[in-house]
């Protein structure tokens, strides 16, 4: 990982005042990088040795340095550099140190510590091995994905590692400064709800899915986005995963550059803080954070980065346990309830009502959190059901994109014209 030099001391006389992205600097020397990398890389091995066992793989999380770096000190983790910046911009919430370090040293899984359900990478390493010119496969529970989401996350982890090698964090400084200003995603949802009295629509630009295959052959992301906006969408969700959803960041950029005014959610599987910077550099106004994939500390950490970048974060939950975790995190403005079961992939919209009953619903109201309904929404009755449960926005893709005219399909979904022209 590339080294980054950051400074936490105030500006000195005669020196330029740091800019918003001044912590994204090119590494100084390879020697300094190697010297700084050794203690961090060896930390997990040393801890495991002290526990009397074999060293276990470092947990897949976004850790930060234990101490804030002084001016000019080299930090090997791009996340550590951002965390130092985030700490100065936002008060640290909850437990501010990596909670899994001790458990990881003893060989405990992150799932057991943080309650996440998706392993971030194969526990026992890859299943494919090479001996000379020969390839063979050894599959076991530790290197075989338990469901499609876990498979996607494992592939995404490898993909992001390659992307970071090609474009280290310091190389994103220019694109970030050149990116168009972030639009108010949360404000757009509130305005739409206030105008129509119906859940605000986040319409999804989505060509395919791993379970349904190609949803639309004649797929023009810009035309679809413009049709959504014309027919009442408050915001848009743009799939950027290529392997499983046939999306791309080119689609996101094209929609932003085409003059579409709706704020854009980058619908990506976030496993690394680098992705937040990359999404913002491509014009994203919001990102998706999946609680089943990210430990609490990572969510807190990424929320701070989003705040610095001016982006909103839609934190997605699937069940009561994930909802309780997210409600315990400060700074959450949007919670998405996905009605799809991660184990069976069955969809049940009553899941939304179950997660919003009782004390959870009261806490959401007290914190002024907007709840977004996701999956299984195809009819006006479905929209009415989740609205009565407490939802103020919905994210809908398949039921719109498969229609001959995705824009006009919005009126069919809500049972009325929700566009500005219709309201007038």
Automatic annotation (TrEMBL):
Q: Give the residue ranges for region: Disordered.
A: 46-68
GO MF annotation terms: indole-3-glycerol-phosphate synthase activity
One of the protein's GO biological processes:
L-tryptophan biosynthetic process
What keywords is this UniProt entry annotated with?
Amino-acid biosynthesis, Aromatic amino acid biosynthesis, Decarboxylase, Lyase, Tryptophan biosynthesis
Q: Reaction(s) catalyzed by this protein?
A: 1-(2-carboxyphenylamino)-1-deoxy-D-ribulose 5-phosphate + H(+) = (1S,2R)-1-C-(indol-3-yl)glycerol 3-phosphate + CO2 + H2O
Q: Which InterPro entries does the entry link to? A: Aldolase_TIM, Indole-3-glycerol_P_synth, Indole-3-glycerol_P_synth_dom, Indole-3-GlycerolPSynthase_CS, RibuloseP-bd_barrel
The Indole-3-glycerol phosphate synthase domain is annotated at 149-411
Please give the pathway this protein is involved in.
Answer: Amino-acid biosynthesis; L-tryptophan biosynthesis; L-tryptophan from chorismate: step 4/5
Q: Which SUPFAM superfamilies match?
A: Ribulose-phoshate binding barrel
CDD domains per record: IGPS
Give the EC number(s) under which this enzyme is classified.
4.1.1.48
Annotated Low complexity bias: 46-61
Q: By what name is this protein known?
A: indole-3-glycerol-phosphate synthase
């Amino acid at each position: 990982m590339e080294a980054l030099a950051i400074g936490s001391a105030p500006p000195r006389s005669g020196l330029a005042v740091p800019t918003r992205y001044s912590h994204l600097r090119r590494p100084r020397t390879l020697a300094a990088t190697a010297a700084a990398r050794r203690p961090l890389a060896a930390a997990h091995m040393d801890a495991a040795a002290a526990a009397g066992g074999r060293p276990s793989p470092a947990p897949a999380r976004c850790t930060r340095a234990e101490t804030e770096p002084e001016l000019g000190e080299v930090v090997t983790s791009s996340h550590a550099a951002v965390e130092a910046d985030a700490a100065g911009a936002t008060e640290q919430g909850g437990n501010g140190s990596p909670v899994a370090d001790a458990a990881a040293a003893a060989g405990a899984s992150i799932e057991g510590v943080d309650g996440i359900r998706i392993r971030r990478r194969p526990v026992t390493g890859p299943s494919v091995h090479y001996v000379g010119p020969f390839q063979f496969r050894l599959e076991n529970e530790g290197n075989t994905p338990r469901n499609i989401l876990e498979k996607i996350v494992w592939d995404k982890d490898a993909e992001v590692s390659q992307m970071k090698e090609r474009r280290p964090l310091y190389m994103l400084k220019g694109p970030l400064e050149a990116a168009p200003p972030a639009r108010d995603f949360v404000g757009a949802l509130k305005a739409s709800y206030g105008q129509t009295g119906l859940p605000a629509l986040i319409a999804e630009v989505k060509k395919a899915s791993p379970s349904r295959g190609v949803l639309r052959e004649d797929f023009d992301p810009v035309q679809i986005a413009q049709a959504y906006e014309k027919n009442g969408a408050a915001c848009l969700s743009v799939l950027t995963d290529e392997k499983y959803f046939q999306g791309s960041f080119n689609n996101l950029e094209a929609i932003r550059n085409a003059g579409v005014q709706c704020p854009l959610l980058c619908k990506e599987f976030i496993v690394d803080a680098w992705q937040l910077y990359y999404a913002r550099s491509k014009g994203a106004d919001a990102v998706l954070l999946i609680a089943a994939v990210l430990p609490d500390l990572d969510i807190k950490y990424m929320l701070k980065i989003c705040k610095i970048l001016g982006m909103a974060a839609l934190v997605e939950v699937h069940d009561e346990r994930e909802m309780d975790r997210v409600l315990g995190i400060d700074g959450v403005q949007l919670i998405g309830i996905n009605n799809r079961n991660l184990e069976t992939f069955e969809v049940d919209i009553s899941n939304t009502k179950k997660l919003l009953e009782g004390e959870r619903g009261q806490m959401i109201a007290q914190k002024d959190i907007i709840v977004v309904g996701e999956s299984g929404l195809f009819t006006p009755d479905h929209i009415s059901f989740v609205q009565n449960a407490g939802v103020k926005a919905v994210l809908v893709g398949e039921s719109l994109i498969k229609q001959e005219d995705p824009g006009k399909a919005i009126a069919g979904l809500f049972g009325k014209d929700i566009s500005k022209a219709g309201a007038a």
